[in-house]
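Incident log, structure service

09:12 report received: a user says their structure output differs between two submissions of the same chain.
09:20 pulled the input from the user's history:
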Amino acid sequence: AFASHLIIDDEGLIDLRYNGKGGGVSSRPLLWKGYEGMRKLLLTNIGMLATPQGRTAKKGPEQGAIQMLKNAWVLVEDGVIAQVGTGAAPEVEDAKVVDAEGNLVTPGLVDAHTHLIFGGWRQNELGMKLHGKTYLEIQNAGGGIQSTTNATRRATAEELTNKAAKALDEMMGFGVTTCEAKSGYGLATEHELKALQVIKDLNDRHPMDIVATFMGAHLVPAEYKQNREEYIRLVCEEMMPAVKEQGIAKFCDVFCEADTFTVEESRQVLEAGLKYGLRPKIHADEIEAIGGSQLAGEIGAISAEHLIVCPPEGIASMAKGGVIACLLPATSFNLGAVFAPARDMIRAGVPVAMATDFNPGSCPCLNLQFVINLGCLKYKLTPEEVLTAVTLNGAAAIDMADKVGSVEVGKQGDLVIWDAPDLDYICYRVGSNLAKTVIKRGELV
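09:34 re-ran on a clean worker, output below:
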């Protein structure tokens, strides 16, 4: 509905362009994800192929156990990895040959936590923070999530789509080929459904694979401040049935934090989500440890996110419940906060993923490479552990590890050629975009 024109060439490549008000255009070529034609890509002369292996999250010592292949090659057929080998590459008839020129190749990166759909920005809050206002003080003064909610409600679906498409292009330029996107800035049935429909449309049309999370319980909006029970009822009894009926989300998330949703309110929301087939995620222990990480383990959440001040009992609960810790170091960096106890989590057997937390308030950052740097510098993770965190474990945190997150036969042909000789180099270099070539489903993007 928002495309001005669409072109399908003889290789099955779609060029769909988003037109925004004022004639602005985002024009990255798009892949038709249902295409079944015969397409072959042979990636040769790989100096080092670095990848985790498997179809489930890796924890403990396994998180740092990745495969390193020198002088490697990869054959992708019809968007799926058909062969991986070392030495001389085979001759493949009708294959597009891409020379990695001796560089590092990894799986496409997975950004497992973003708040992609929102109206407006909040650059005015930077000055407030520099004058000593805390995140919750800004929120309680009418800023924060509520101000973004107001802007998101005013925005049309087309405006939200144009803005998000531009962000996805930027993310893909940094090497991200799969991401999660949350609703949560509409905070009313009409606008939450609008956001989720935008995500669905983008997933259908953009090269990026996008997994949707319903987060109506991001904040109690201003009009329900005196009747929060009614808002929770609205989320559970009106929004969720509509989300299920329209099939526009896979997960349900809740912001379990002081001044947002209590542990018991969060339990109510997540249990309602389970009733409607939405797997639980939870924002927990970002500012205060009020019990969100313990709840994650008790309810069997697929992931708990943030975990900046996660206590030992929360780590133990997540380990017991099989929860993936989705850590967001760029948020700690942007807030001037402490960093999550990632090493303690790995020692306890909790799989660690890392993501950007892209949002207009606490982390306006799309650069997963910066997250890689912070994972080493602030979490003290090894380059191998970090690679798993932003590929296979990120994929597992959004239930995509059977399809993406590693370079293995049968998985999607999602790859990044880096302007780097080895894995250490991309963890060592800070501030440069080292993604040289991004390949999605066997197509150069």
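09:41 both user submissions now match this output. Likely a transient worker issue. Closing.
09:42 reviewer note: Confidence is low (pLDDT under 50) at residues 1-30. The chain has 15 helices and 20 strands.
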